[in-house]
Specification:
InterPro entries: DUF58 (IPR002881). Pfam families: DUF58. This is DUF58 domain-containing protein. The chain is built from nine helices and 20 strands. With 438 residues, it is of the alpha/beta class. The protein folds into four domains: 44 residues; 94 residues, Immunoglobulin-like (Sandwich); 53 residues, no CATH class; 202 residues, Rossmann fold (3-Layer(aba) Sandwich). The strands form five sheets. Strands 17-16-15-18-19-20 form a six-stranded mixed sheet, sandwiched between helices. Strands 1-11-10-5-7 form a five-stranded antiparallel sheet. A four-stranded antiparallel sheet has the order 2-4-8-6, with no helix packed on it. Helix 1 runs antiparallel to helix 2 and helix 4 packs antiparallel against helix 5. The radius of gyration is 34 Å and the shape is elongated.
Length: 438
């Protein structure tokens, strides 16, 4: 990278030439005295002219972070040089400094804190490199970089019960006797009992062989379904898409820790799908899939149907439950024998009319009348009607055995999943029945 004279050095040379020319033409010695500092400055600039140097190297300090973590775009140059960096704020990211401009000696950095999951692209507009006296400088455009932000996860809570266990290798205690570590009862020894299950304390006290009966530990296949067909934002800035992804990440993390096989299916085109699997590797795959999601693809209205689901699987649908095709897909899952739980991710303030139109004075009445003349003046009323229609759909889902719970963390699902386990005889959608939308 070759540096060029800075504007300060150019001004010094121009003033030196101008003062020298005027001194010769007017025979004024004072002009030579005035030009002396500029002469020294220009001479230093010529003597300190740097040679060709390497271009500064810039990039992000990390390419995979959790939501809320801080990542730096750092630019490094040769020691003793001044470095300036300008980074425009990416969408849904906070910058430090807020202007996105930073300078330093030898290196500098701009810190970013992503406020939304997904893939964020950082594209610095300009970098300036100068010597320590500011006499020579060069500009370049640093290479762009990208960071994948994984959604934050709620801490695991209750909700270990599953409605329809499939395997016998998980962590869920069942109601039936079998191999496990959860004690069911201490009973008389029977033919076929394992010797290692003998309870020697009770045996020595009663004089008869007794054995420990345990509950079988089972697992299931959990399918987390996300509705990313549309992104609805409330007045407080709450996004249905953000809540959906947060709920999906928390539910998947919770059941993977319990040893279940967890898969992911996106009804939209933002996240994609992940086949069911268990273990730490599956947890990493799900986090990477959510971190690489592209929010720009959230406006595609077509719903991607679920091709395969095992009967008895637990399906957790994270959705605002507004789209007719999404409701129809939920009913298809019920018809195919899955235990379906719907997580409502609609921002709570949409469609609420609590005290919104109560005018207490003449001024308030006039303000309300002026508000009616603005664009989207019936937006609140329209959302209220849409929420009432949605409540009818949710009641129909409840009649078919699909509980709907508002997302308030993983703990809010515990009682609902336990109710699903206790109510295995919930009604199912009959063949030919229409979607709950009606």
């Amino acid at each position: 990278m070759r540096l060029r004279p800075s504007p300060a050095l150019v001004r010094a040379v121009v003033l030196l030439v101008l003062c020298g020319t005027l001194a010769v033409l007017t025979s004024q010695v004072a002009l030579l005295v005035l030009a002396a500092p500029f002469t020294v400055w220009a001479a230093l600039g010529v003597l300190r002219r740097p040679g060709t140097s390497e271009a500064p190297d810039g990039g992000l300090s990390a390419h995979r972070v959790q939501l809320g973590d801080v990542v730096e775009y750092r630019l490094r140059s040769e020691p003793g040089t001044l470095v300036g960096l300008t980074v425009p704020p990416p969408a849904r990211c906070d910058l430090d400094p807020p202007s996105g401009a930073a300078t330093g000696l030898g290196e500098t950095a701009v810190r970013l804190r992503p406020q939304r999951w997904g893939r964020h692209r950082v594209e610095p507009t300009e970098a300036v490199v100068a010597d320590d006296w500011g006499l020579w400088l060069g500009t370049l455009r640093p290479r762009p970089d990208a960071v994948s932000v994984a959604p934050g996860r709620e801490p695991p809570g209750r909700g270990d019960v599953i409605p329809h266990p499939i395997g016998l290798v998980g962590l869920h205690p069942s109601r039936t006797r079998g191999e496990g570590v959860t004690l069911a009862e201490v009973r008389r020894f029977q033919t076929g009992d394992r010797l290692r299950r003998i309870n020697w304390r009770v045996t020595s006290r009663t004089g008869q062989l007794h054995t420990n009966a345990t509950l079988a530990e089972r697992d299931t296949e959990v399918l987390v379904v996300t509705d990313t067909v549309a992104d609805l934002v409330g007045d407080s800035g709450t996004s249905s898409l953000d809540t959906t992804v947060l709920a999906a990440a928390s539910v998947a993390e919770h059941y993977l820790r319990l040893g279940d096989r967890v898969g992911l299916h996106d009804l939209g085109h933002v996240i994609g799908s992940v086949p069911p699997a268990a273990g730490a590797r599956q947890r990493t795959v799900l986090v990477e899939q959510l971190a690489r999601a592209s929010v720009e693809r959230a406006a595609r209205p077509m719903v991607r149907r679920i091709r395969r689901v095992r009967p008895g699987s637990l399906v957790v649908v994270c959705s605002p439950l507004l789209d007719r095709d999404v409701l129809a897909e939920v009913l298809r899952l019920v018809h195919r024998g899955a235990a379906v739980l719907a997580v409502d991710t609609l921002p709570p303030e949409l469609g609420r009319l609590d005290g919104a139109h109560r005018a207490r004075s003449v001024g308030a009445v006039l303000d309300a009348a002026v508000e009616r003349l603005r664009p989207q003046r019936y937006w609140t009323e329209a959302w209220a009607l849409r929420r009432l229609e949605r409540d009818v759909d949710l009641d129909r889902l409840a009649e078919l055995g699909v509980p709907v719970v508002t997302w308030r963390g993983i703990e809010s699902l515990g009682t609902v999943v336990a109710a699903l386990a206790a109510n295995r005889g919930a009604p199912r959608m009959a063949r030919g029945a229409g979607a709950g939308a009606g």
